[in-house]
Amino acid sequence: MFTPIERKKVSSQVLDQLKEMIKDKTFPPESKLPSEHELSKMFGVSRAPIREALSVLAASGLIESRQGGGSYVKRVELAGMLDPVTFEMVEMDQIYDLLEMRSIVESEAAKLAAERRNEEDLDLIREAINSFKQTIDNYSTVGHEADFQFHYAVVKAASNPFLMQAFENLAELNRKALLFSLKKNVQKEKREKVYKEHVRIYEAILDQDAERASKSMRIHLTNARIKLGDERVAIGENE
């Protein structure tokens, strides 16, 4: 099956190349970008598409204008992430740190969920699992929302309002992190593996086996770190 050739605007092509050059540190954090005139010569285009691309980068929080003139590359911090364009520029170590924090918090949440869950909680977890199962063969969707709802349901079942509030405060960040990570693991086999890990967590919560629920959640999030290349994780931790 052929994919139609995409005819992108010149400014979009410039934007893509500038983003890549920021990402690969051709233009590192805190460095000054070439002037519009220099960039137009570099890319062989007029200054209009250069100006448009720079406007998008500025609106996305990747660059900023400073006193004295010129645009500078901003240092992207994961904790301040809002825009999906900016998220592409995050250092992978920050993604690993987020998953590490989630592993600590959510493994304990799963333990509490096993001890405190009620039938409504179990229904919510099952519903999220079934929603994710439907994405296994559906390549038109990434499945991050169903994945998020599963973790939300587990934390909710822990019945701790402070834990729930902390999870909700990071909800948008976690959604973007899930979208980012699942896009890198869209193969059917990997989706099936995530689905089975969800099922094992649910079964432990259903059986009210707190230790197994905690361990299953920790393994699930550790596997996510391994798939994304976190070398700080010992291979034995996912067994």
UniProtKB/TrEMBL annotation:
InterPro entries to which the protein is assigned, alphabetical: GntR_C, TF_FadR/GntR_C, Tscrpt_reg_HTH_GntR, WH-like_DNA-bd_sf, WH_DNA-bd_sf
Pfam families in the cross-refs: FCD (PF07729), GntR (PF00392)
Protein name: GntR family transcriptional repressor for pyruvate dehydrogenase complex
Top-level taxon in the UniProt lineage: Bacteria
SUPFAM superfamilies linked: GntR ligand-binding domain-like (SSF48008), Winged helix' DNA-binding domain (SSF46785)
Keyword field: DNA-binding, Pyruvate, Transcription, Transcription regulation
Residue span(s) of domain HTH gntR-type: 8-76
Record SMART domains: FCD, HTH_GNTR
Native organism: Priestia iocasae
